[in-house]
Amino acid sequence: MPLIHVTWLPKACRNSEVRKQVAKAIIQAITNNEVAKAADIPTDKLVVRFSEAVDGFALPPGHTYESLGLSDEKQK
């Protein structure tokens, strides 16, 4: 399973909606190019997770191709 882990410093503006937008951009960048096709990256197994560089800070859930609605965009 391809896993992309983003670690950043905590800021109030980095809320769940911002994480979702960043995850969507990362997944689109990885899956919509020739390298992804050559590497045979399975979109249904790609996960983006976020954490903040603070000890004891809970990890938010990861985002996937389906949870971001990208599979719906390809069908259009």
Task: Describe the overall structure.
By secondary structure, the protein is an alpha+beta fold. Helix content is 37%, strand content 18%. It is elongated, with a radius of gyration of 13 Å. It starts with a strand and ends with a helix. The mean pLDDT is 77.
H-E order: EHHEEH
Percent strand equals 15-25%
What's the gyration radius in Å?
13 Å
Helix percentage: 25-40%
- Placed side by side, the strands forming the largest sheet appear as 1-2-3
* End-to-end distance: 26 Å
Quick structural summary:
With 76 residues, the protein is an alpha+beta fold. The chain has helices spanning 16-31, 34-39, 70-75, and strands at residues 3-8, 47-52, 63-64. It is elongated and about 40 Å long.
Helices and strands in order, then pairings?
Blueprint: E1 3-8, H1 16-31, H2 34-39, E2 47-52, E3 63-64, H3 70-75
Parallel strand pairs: 1-2
Antiparallel strand pairs: 2-3
Descriptive labels:
76 residues, alpha+beta, three-stranded mixed beta sheet, 3 helices, 3 strands, 18% strand, elongated
